[in-house]
Amino acid sequence: MTISMYAASIPALKQGLAALDKILTKAETHATEKKIDPNALLQARLFPDMFALARQVQLTSDFAKGIAARLAGVENPSYADTETTFVELHERIAKTLAFIDTVPAAKIDGSEGREIVLMPGTPRERKLDGQSYLVNYALPQFYFHLTTAYALLRHNGIEIGKRDFLNAA
What 3-state DSSP class applies to 20? Predict the structure, then answer.
């Protein structure tokens, strides 16, 4: 049995982004109830050389929209990365989900062999076929940043667990 490129990507991206949106809401509620400055959570890091929570959310969004755009062969929207509040991060996730919803399955299915060029024209240029891009590069990147955002919140006392990460009912 085979799985389509759309089925292997878009549902997982949408599930992960929805889960991220919900755990950010839990973080907001936690900050309000505990009288914590929201910025303390938004700028939290697991280690000084790692990105803060807000940047982890931006990168999760970037990989999600990039996967959909590159596999479909459409323009990857550029976002300014200026979000500094929970409200703005929620808006970014909503904007990312709205973009993903505009990409038809027919444009993604069959992209296994499509050439994906990362960082074109730079010394770090990398060419992958669509399947290798999705399975070996893009989805691991998406889940890395999603997991790091989850870990930052959990480390800072937000009461979330595996069901939240999986966006389970």
Answer: helix
